[in-house]
Write a structure and sequence with these properties.
706 residues; mainly alpha; 36 helices; 2 strands; flat; nucleus; spliceosome; mRNA splicing
């Protein structure tokens, strides 16, 4: 068997019995075994107590004998002895454990915590002293040692512990813990309302910076001097020293300039902060990073790039709060231009980027810059001659022309832009009607109707889209050129004889100018077409036209012609409602139409359509009929019954499951069913009689033979 065949599922059909998630959870809960509690040992006298201790100690000793290296067993053993107040035994257990693994920092910690928990301070001090001598690089042992000395109120010993720790050159957290300890001591030594002396803490932080001369330590010291020591001159000296004493790679970190400038801003030194920001931008080339990356910038980490971006944002925010309007706009505009230039250089076909870039230049009113952006944008022609790639590109030309027309008022230049756009579109494969229409409307606004008509004529010849016909006809209709509109409609219908909307608009035009016969002839010609996209719209318009003209007989004839083509229930309802109007034959004729429709739909077996018809008929009787008519219609109303049927997949023929649907039982259909049942019953009785007669004949023939 191959490897791929092992995990394949052969039968993908659903299981006959489906199991829910709730059922799985319930079964899991039912199958859980009952939790067995450990037996409770009751001790009645000292002898039983000593026996219990001996058994437990034997148990621990056996575990230690087999698993000597597992520190957890030693800790549990010591905890057991501690619970029984056998402190010497606890120390013995820990000492034995340390002989096994004296490099276990956790074991030393548990030993010291035991001594502290039981208030053996000197013993705990001895344990921690031994621990830090053996494991001087384990920080939490030093933390525990210093914390214990501080808790017992011996500040000198705590300071001595920190000094011993600092001699091992620990990380930043150790120095900060030492400084915070000195702050707490300074605050505890003064009365309320007095300013504590932070000299010791500040000296610790200075030693930390000397030990680790990097950007991180300088920034921590500057923040410390500002917020903790409240020494503003010291903080300023620290930031200045960071810029002068650190290595060039350290100085080029954006966070130094950001924190320094923020410090000066908090102190109200806005000019100093502005100088720092400007120096950082010049040193780090923040204005150029968006357009071109230098060699040293290519080696930056993502974190440093993010920090430089944040530095520039901080500078922008600073100028917004404390700068002049021109300076703020210049900063923001330069940054945005750089970003857009980089974006369109990476992807010249990013038309959304070109739109945003052009909008940026338009908002600042520089006409030459806007034209330059649009010219660069429209030069990036889509590589493939497919319409989906040109849809966004075309709007660059449109926006360009609209800008020239509305912002600069240069209609001649806008017209040339449309002409240039039309010259590059491959009209043999596809075209854009909006370009033709916008160009023609621009000529109309220039009062050059001749050029606009020629342009739309070219559009019809090269493109021939419906939207162009509609706009051209609307233009001529606005100018009152009815003959031109007729000529355009004739051309329109020659190219699209199936378009019902075109026939309807043409007929409405003739009717609006009083040409009733031409309108009727158009409708007749339209309904005689072999193929129409929306014939119901055309027939409805034709019938409404005859009704509005007061030609009831012609409207009735149209209904009859339409019913010969289609027996749709809505046509029957409309016909019956028409007969009930003033130009119709009246209520009785409307009832006859409803009855004809009902009989026709009944013959075709259309139940839902019969229900719609009966609803419309009942509403008609309520508004224009009488009570007897309403009761007659309601007697025909069906009963709705819910049924089930099997769903079958049309492709595979497989059963998909049962579905519910509603069926209608009409009273007249039930009568027919009853008659059919009676006929079947009579046929069964006749068959039984024939069988009995055959039996009697066979008996007579047997007796004669005997």
């Amino acid at each position: 068997m191959s490897r791929n065949a092992v995990g394949q599922v052969k039968n993908r059909a659903p299981a006959p019995i489906q199991i829910s998630a709730e059922q799985i959870i319930r079964e899991a809960a039912d199958r859980q075994e009952a939790h067995v509690l450990d037996p409770v040992t009751k001790i009645h006298d000292a002898e039983e107590y000593q026996s219990y201790l001996a058994s437990r100690r034997k148990h621990f000793e056996d575990n230690i004998r087999y698993r000597r290296e597992q520190i957890g067993i030693w800790v549990k053993y010591a905890r057991f002895e501690e619970d029984n107040k056998e402190f010497e035994r606890v120390r013995s257990v820990f000492e034995r454990a340390l002989e096994v693994d004296h490099r276990s920092a956790e074991l030393w910690l548990r030993y010291a915590e035991f001594e502290m928990r039981n208030e053996f301070v000197n013993r705990a001090r001895n344990v921690l002293d031994r621990a830090v001598q053996i494991l001087p690089r384990v920080d939490f042992l030093w933390y525990k040692y210093a914390y214990m000395e501080e808790m017992v109120g011996d500040a000198e010993k705590c300071r001595e512990v920190f000094e011993r720790w600092m001699s091992w050159c620990p990380d930043d957290g150790a120095w900060l813990s030492y400084a915070r300890f000195e702050v707490r001591c300074a605050k505890a030594s003064v009365s309320e309302g007095e300013q504590p002396n932070m000299d010791r803490a500040t000296e610790v932080m200075k030693r930390y910076v000397n030990e680790y001369p990097c950007a991180k330590s300088f920034l921590k010291l500057g923040k410390w001097a500002e917020h903790e020591a409240k020494d503003i001159p010291l903080a300023r000296r620290v930031y200045e020293s960071a810029l002068m004493e650190l290595e060039p790679e350290e100085v080029r970190q954006a966070r130094i300039f950001k924190q320094f400038a923020a410090f000066e801003e908090r102190q109200g030194e806005y000019e100093r902060a502005r100088v720092i920001y400007q120096h950082a931008i010049k040193l780090l080339n923040l204005g150029e990073r968006a357009t071109r990356m230098k060699d040293d910038d290519e080696e930056l980490t993502d974190n440093e790039r993010y920090r430089r971006d944040e530095l520039y944002k901080a500078y922008v925010a600073f100028e917004k709060k404390h700068g002049q309007k021109d300076g703020i706009e210049n900063v923001i505009l330069t940054k945005q231009r750089a970003e857009y230039n980089k974006r369109i250089q990476d992807d010249p076909l990013d038309y959304d980027g070109w739109f945003e870039f052009a909008k940026l230049e338009e908002d600042h009113g520089d006409t030459a810059a806007v034209r330059d952006v649009y010219e660069r944008a429209v030069a990036n022609i889509p590589p493939a001659e497919e319409k989906q790639y040109w849809k966004r590109y075309i709007y660059l030309w449109i926006y360009y022309a609209v800008f020239e027309e509305l912002q600069t008022g240069d209609l001649e230049r806008a017209s040339k832009i449309y002409d240039a756009c039309l010259s590059i579109i491959p009209h043999k494969k596809f075209s854009f009607s909006k370009i033709w229409i916008y160009a023609a409307k621009l000529h109309v606004r220039r009062k050059d109707l001749t050029t606009a008509r020629k342009l739309l004529g070219r559009a019809i010849g090269m493109c021939g889209k419906e939207k162009i016909f509609i706009e051209y006809i609307a233009l001529e209709l606005t100018l009152g050129e009815i003959d031109r509109c007729r000529a355009l409609y004739n051309k329109y219908l020659q190219m699209m004889p199936h378009n019902c909307k075109a026939w309807s608009r043409y007929a409405d035009l003739e009717r609006s100018v009083g040409e009733t016969e031409r309108c009727r002839a158009l409708y007749e010609l339209a309904v005689s077409q072999a193929a129409l996209d929306m014939p119901e719209l055309l027939w409805k318009g034709y019938i409404d036209f005859e009704i509005e003209e007061g030609e009831g007989s012609k409207a009735r004839a149209l209904y009859e012609r339409l019913l010969e083509r289609t027996g749709h229930v809505k046509v029957w309802i409309s016909f019956a409602q028409f007969e009930g109007t003033e130009i119709g034959k009246g209520v009785e004729e409307a009832r006859n139409i409803f009855q004809r429709a009902y009989d026709r739909l009944k013959e075709e077996g259309l139940k839902e359509e019969r229900v719609l018809l009966l609803d419309a008929w009942r509403m008609f009787e309520k508004t224009k009929g009488d009570t007897s008519g309403v009761s007659s219609v309601e007697s025909k109303m069906p009963r709705r019954i819910k049924k089930k049927r099997m769903q079958i997949d049309e492709e595979t023929g497989a059963e998909l499951g049962w579905e519910e649907y509603f069926d209608y039982h009409f009273p007249d259909d039930e009568g027919a069913a009853t008659n059919n049942l009676k006929i079947l019953e009579m046929a069964a009785k006749w068959k039984q009689a024939q069988a009995n007669a055959n039996d009697s004949d066979s008996d007579d023939s047997d007796s004669e033979s005997d």
